[in-house]
Amino acid sequence: MDGATPDLLTPLLQRQRLAHARRVPDHAQRVADLKRLRAAVKKRAEDIVAAVATDFGRRSRHETLLSDVMTVLHDIDHAVRHLKRWMKPRRVATDWQFLPGRSQIRYQPVGVVGIIAPWNYPVNLALMPLVAAIAAGNHAMLKPSELTPRTSDLLKALLADVFPEERVAVVLGGPDVAAAFSALPFDHLFFTGSTQVGRLVMQAAAKNLTPVTLELGGKSPAIVAPDYPIETAAARLAAGKFLNAGQTCIAPDYVLCHAAKVDALVAALEREVRERYPSLAQTPDYTSIVNDRQYARLAGLLEEAQAAGARVLRVNPAGETLDPASRVFAPTLVLDAPADTRLMREEIFGPILPIVPYQHLDEAITYVNAHERPLALYHFDLDGARVGDVLDRTIAGGVTVNDCVLHIAQSALPFGGIGPSGIGHYHGHHGFLTFSKQKPVFYQARWSSLSLLKPPYRKLADVVIRFLTR
User: Fold this and answer.
1) Does a structural domain hold residue 466?
2) Binning pLDDT at 50, 70 and 90, where does residue 460 land?
3) For the chain, what is the radius of gyration of the CA atoms?
4) What domain count does the chain have?
5) Sheet arrangement for strand 90-92
6) Whole-number pLDDT of residue 1
7) Is 226 helix (H, G, I), strand (E, B) or coil?
């Protein structure tokens, strides 16, 4: 739906709801849909690369193929392989008091799902929730980000080739359309974006009692144990932080490092940047900031922190003059940033990495727990007991131990935040469950033990009740 206006959204939702009521997709239909979607994504992989690069100004081809194409294909393959088992009704135990009755859980699609996708991984974060919604047997309306317009146009064309609009529809438009979209009475609303906007989406959905899944963000910490190899930590932190120039919801937002190892970590991170991006201006492997507004926001975070006494180390291997118009933002390390600066309070969402020293690991754990629960936590440590201690004493949406971001790539693990970093989960079976109604069913047997308990109650009923309440 090109340039959708809010008043056109309700009729579209009604058409999708009627179509779903006429024919709920069965296993064969869902698998066929997913396979056609896979073929369309694979066929247009290079178109996706070009569209995303145009939207960003410069986006690493390899990172787009890995993060926006491969992940979707992998997710579809996983769903197709396991869908029959996921859909099968599951028999569960029946309390002995109600035998010989039996119990089961059946999985039904909820109906029509709304999906609001962000700009940072504009294909992945649009299509992976859609894969889960289709696998669960739903119809869907997708609102991609207006900040990546070429990619949004491509998604609309790609999905129109695969699905009729009454099954899957793409709604284009700006903030007014997004607000109206959030207020529709979907059977489930899935949003990926900032915590601030997530609050508004949840408020809009609450008016219709629409269930929501919110995939938000926050300040995801990385803790480096005192004796963990610094070179290894730096390599893996750099991989997680500078992927997509830090425009990743689960990028490490800051590093907690033992005070005696801070200088070594800084030096190792600088070496990693020099090896990965010898020329920031020329390399095709380092992604630009998506738009001028985001670039200015990042510059403002650094200016405020520097004015407050922070040490700002811009890592520019070739010493190039980087034209702000190119929106190439140099990888930047920050030391001694005051806790009350926006850099240390807000999600950074860019290639800026503050390093916070600690003396004892307990201090690092206390620091993490003093802040809102993050979407991700990274702990670098070869001591299994300490790893277990950190896992036990902190709460985060997900964790990777001794690396960054890789928990999101595991099909069997749920992905999602907690509190300000999100509500609900998806990926693999967990996405199927998110978009399904788990219907509990109890089947009464021909003879019911409850027949012993009916008015008028007599001595037998007294005996039975005494036995049941003993």
Assistant:
1) no
2) confident
3) 25
4) 2
5) 90-92, 102-109, 436-443
6) 55
7) coil
Q: Where is the domain boundary, 363, 387, 409?
A: 409
Q: What is the 3 state secondary structure string of 417-433? A: CCECCEECCECHHHHHH
* CA–CA separation, 177 and 11 (whole Å): 14
What is the pLDDT confidence band of residue 4, given thresholds at 50, 70 and 90?
low
* Cβ neighbours of residue 184 closer than 8 Å, sequence gap 6 or more: 9, 10, 13, 114, 141, 208, 210
What's the mean pLDDT when you consider all of the chain?
96
Q: Note if 249 is an active site residue.
A: yes
pTM over 0.85: yes
Active-site choice (215, 257, 272, 347): 215
What are residue 409's phi and psi, to 5 degrees?
A: -90, 5
Judgement on whether residues 273 and 314 belong to the same structural domain of the protein: yes
Active-site residue, from 46, 63, 146, 249:
249
Task: Say if CB 242 and CB 289 are below 8 A apart.
Answer: no
Show the domain range for 90. Answer: 6-216+420-440
Chain segment 181-190, per-residue pLDDT in tens: 999 999 999 9
Q: How far apart are CA 466 and CA 470, in angstroms?
A: 6
312 in the same domain as 273? yes
